[in-house]
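Notes continue from the previous slide.

Worked example: a multi-chain complex. Inputs as given:
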Amino acid sequence: MKKFKLIYVLIGLVFLGCSKEDITTIGQQGNYLANFDFPVGEISAPAKIVLTNRSKNADKFHWEFVGGKTLNKSGVSNVTESDKMVPDTILYELPGEYTVKLTSWQGDKKEEISKTVVLKKMTPRISAPQNIAVYQDAIFDVATFVYPGKDITYLWDFGSGGTSTLKKPTVKFTVEGPQIVKLKVNDGVEELNVEIVVQVKGELAKTIYFTDVITRKIYKLKLSVLSPSLPVDLGITTGPSPLDLSIAGTKLFYSEAGAGLKFSSGNDALGDGYLKSFNLDGTGENLITKNTPAGGYNLDPWMHMVDGDGNIWWTSRNNGVYTLNSAAFEAAYPSFKFRGGGPGFGSTQFYSGIKSVNNEIWVAFSGTAGVGIQRFTKAGVFIELIPGDIKNHGIRQFVVDKVNKYIYFSLNKPSTTVPVLAPGIYRSDMSGNNITAIYTDPTQMGFVTTLPFTGFSDQGFTAPANSNEAIYVTGMDIDVDATGQGYLYFGYRNRADSNGANVPQAVGSGSKSGIMRYKLDGTQPVDFLVKGYAPYGIAIDQVKR
Amino acid sequence: MCLFIMSCKKNDPISELGNSNNEFASQLRVTYNNTSLLFGDTLVISASTWQRDDKFQKVDIYETVVETFGLNMVLKRGTTVITKTADESTLSVVDSILKKSLMLEVKAADMDKYWVTVSNNYVINHQYLVKLKPGRYANDVTLISKLSDGDFDVLKGILAYAITRNDYLAFFPTAPASDFKTSGTPVLSAAGIANLRQNLTKTMLAGNVQTIKKVGNYGLTVDVEAITPTNTITPSTRTFNIPL
């Protein structure tokens, strides 16, 4: 029995020895305080308000929010009291001044605090689409306070987009740029006015760039469909013979042949041509290279193109094809890369249009001993003279329609062999056969050397019928979509606006000249895209901007 | 019996370290609404803190701005020099734009305004609009004149191996042919490189620059400190690298 007692005593000692003051929780040791806050900032009715309880060391709470409703997972109820640490969301439906009272307890201690919030009537808020484009539907909406049981009216004024009395109107702006949208809301109690400014973006479209021998400037014109466009002066002054333009990436390239286009002597025979590049807005002028006076006019750049490798290739009057990196800056004028070849090619030939086609270099010729289009590798190796009927005709410029598989070309030197063709714009298949006339009206495209001035510019033409050196249409480009629809564009200089055998040309008002276009499906007659200019080079920026 | 005695033995390393002075550091947790900042963003700094005895002296939020950048420079005749990329740097300039500066201080007397009963914490939110503070180096050609002589020497060393013939001739129009190699890169011979390093001045370089811009990071450091009355500081630091 004693043994058992001793064991109990020892066990008791053991437990006592283990006993220590353990802290199981760490609470705040500060003062007891009742406090809460409304959300920061101005609040408009109808408002859902979540309060922030800032009370310290309280163990019980009671909230009273007269005038509000309780919003929780069960929905909206008319409950205006809560015993939670933080009450559910309080919904105030009408503008006004509301008081919230918090009572808290810490044991027997009790504190009360009341705070007031003023809820303003929500100012009508216009909701506009992110992107608004001219001539395209834009849906507007407005969020506004609605008094229960009262009618509300809207009066929108969209300026060029018209007016509407709908809450959610659909409008079309006809003017691009910043536009003011005004709205009058009558909520049955008062009239409220709001307005916003929206940016109406212009139509995304391709852009055609063109030279003008009358003003000696380069212009661009957006090929917009929905809204009218006007030519924009890029601020680039050209020489007397800006024979060709092209676009590669975000650069505009320009080749200038200077004085001396047909057979020349004296100052006209000095080399003065050059190649330049610009940003598409006309800034960032860069002189790629320039011929030297001693180099002679036969080496001046005529037509050009930039290939997919970023190299610029250009033809000269009758001295071959040249190339440089298109990013070159004031590079020394190079020697020719290659010259024409093939059967019948001789010394009386004139290099003309040049294009990159299927990773090859295609060059057009116009002369007694060099006509048609020749194909070369990029190494300058002659491949062939395109063998169809096109091989018999002097071609000043051409462009390939890669979708519909056609070659469009300007023919300045007719063949004496069949088929005999008058000067004009034609189309062939990719083998140079099945030549079809596009625009060959002799009163417009022919050479007339007697008064009254009419027909095409006689520059380089020798009466009565020698058009070997006729400068003719040097600017030609195509806008074709994936379905084969689109237009062919070419620069048209009527003799009334641009005449004289060589350079400089005597110029007119431009009233009979401009950029002409041919609808690729042939459903419209050839007409003017724009008049008032006498273009040599033209080029289309194929990216819609 | 032995089992009972064993059960009393507990591992208590804290008490083995010494006796508490009953002063306790505060706890601090700082969160940010955005960790990939860009200029124009609003950074919300959210500092949650508590202290066992609810004793605070203050909570401070500081900002420090240091810009570290290289140069992307294009000269008028084709030379391009990039001294800093994501992978490597040949010249980095450090600009201490703003030393550690107080943005917000909440003193003990105001702490109760920030108490949030639900989370049992003081929650201090601070909104900071991220915008570029101009430093010593503007992002244009004038920064060349501000480079230290040491940094400019490094830049000349890089330029000597990247310069084009035409740009070199723009600096030294009467340079002899011996300043150039006959082929290959760099285009300068040892004599040309030495000449450029010795004789190119900041003014000459600035006059031949087509474009120049800084490439690198704008480093914004946010320090939050919760401080008790005994000056015990609980810090939190975060640095945001904002691309220039």
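Summary box: Residues 9-27 of chain A have pLDDT under 50 and may be disordered. The first strand of chain A starts at residue 36 and ends at 37.
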